[in-house]
Write a structure and sequence with these properties.
46% of the residues lie in helices and 14% in strands. The chain contains 11 helices and 10 strands. By secondary structure, it is α+β, with helices and mostly antiparallel strands. The strands form 3 sheets. A 4-stranded mixed beta sheet has the order 1-4-5-8. A 4-stranded antiparallel beta sheet has the order 2-3-7-6, with no helix packed on it. It is globular, with a radius of gyration of 22 Å. The structure holds flavin-adenine dinucleotide. The site of flavin-adenine dinucleotide has 18 residues, from strand 1 and helix 11.
Amino acid sequence: MDLKETQDEEQFRRTVRGWLQGHLPAGWGTPAHRAPETAAEQVAFARWWQRTLHDGGWAGLTWPTEYGGRGAAIVEQLLYNEEYARLRAPDILSLKIGLNLVGPTVMACGTAVQKTRFLPRILSGQDIWCQGFSEPNAGSDLAAVKTRAELRGDAFVVTGQKTWTSVAQHADWCILVTRTSFDGPKHKGLTFLLVDMKSPGITIRPLREITGDAWFNEVFFDEVRVPRDNLVGEINGGWAVVLTTLAHERAGTTPHVRLHGEQRRLADLARATAHNGRRAADDPILRQKIAQSAIETALLRYTAYRNVTMVQRTGQPGPEGSILKIFWSELEQRLKDTAIEILGVYGMLPKGEARAADDGFWFYELLWSRAATIYAGTSEVQRNIIAQRVLGLPR
Ligand SMILES: Cc1cc2nc3c(=O)[nH]c(=O)nc-3n(C[C@H](O)[C@H](O)[C@H](O)COP(=O)(O)OP(=O)(O)OC[C@H]3O[C@@H](n4cnc5c(N)ncnc54)[C@H](O)[C@@H]3O)c2cc1C
């Protein structure tokens, strides 16, 4: 990748920054802005913000214009993401599955009718999607799913259980991996469906996370009817569709920008916090850890750029995305561990406590970051992928 930006690219960056500064809610990023707090408020805010981006022509940068995207190049997406994260514009959990996973999957594997029906609604924030892949006995070994789909007339009838399904309680639609054959190799009996979450027979039970929030859920399907038109790919050919989704899940292009921001925040914290009778920033061990995190954040940036180059060359994210996933998720945890080390026992105070540093930000992040090496494929699974598919080592 040529790291020097062209004049057009610099201009593009300025345009993105100007537009975002002009459209973020008043007082955004300052104490004057009251961020949405409850899950319902956050979801309503997410829909509003996505519609605003869409109306401004900033939704789905690399998506084709026929589906409401901007038809831009991947480098522009990278520049956009960098400016977006630099301004700490809203990082919206509830829309990520639709935008990052469902959209690219439907574009690659869906029918013409599915593309026209679903893609514009994802971009405009009208539909929230969830990902019904994991089950109690099928996580890393996703091909082991048992949720059964039986074709009866013009509909599949689905019965079974999914778990860890993020935002299911707010979702309009779900990408669902089901089993349609119990014969032969596990991965050859799977079928990929698009399921309306308002269908009769669906029960959702939120699961409370270590942070106290309940973003993920158990989802039960009891004879749920899914029209045959909502099949993606072939019956028993769902594994190919799943692999498309997973490649996009692991290939996020710009984790470095958010972590770079947090790394600078960590250095500020060390300057402002007393530790063992002096500034944490003057403690030789902590200094080394902070310097190391700055080095690793820079390395992450170049790893992300290498991934973008791969997508530019091949049009698709490759297994190299696993290198990026391991690196950012483990760096994220080290960064949060260092923050708590700086804060000492005060680091355990949650949001709302008078003496909590940064209003409990680091404590919440410490807890939430534990999930980073699990979701989108655990670190162990990513290492297997790198060993087998990048390095060509035997199984
Ligand atoms: C915050 C969060 C949100 C999530 N959201 C969703 C969602 O929206 N939709 C969804 O479908 N899922 C979601 N998940 C589930 C996630 O994808 C799974 O937790 C993950 O794939 C691991 O599966 P598992 O939990 O069943 O663990 P297991 O697969 O049982 O793994 C247990 C341990 O064994 C290790 N292990 C397993 N297989 C191997 C192997 N072959 N080699 C070496 N080690 C191995 C794992 O690394 C792990 O340490 C979410 C998870 C989290 C934490």
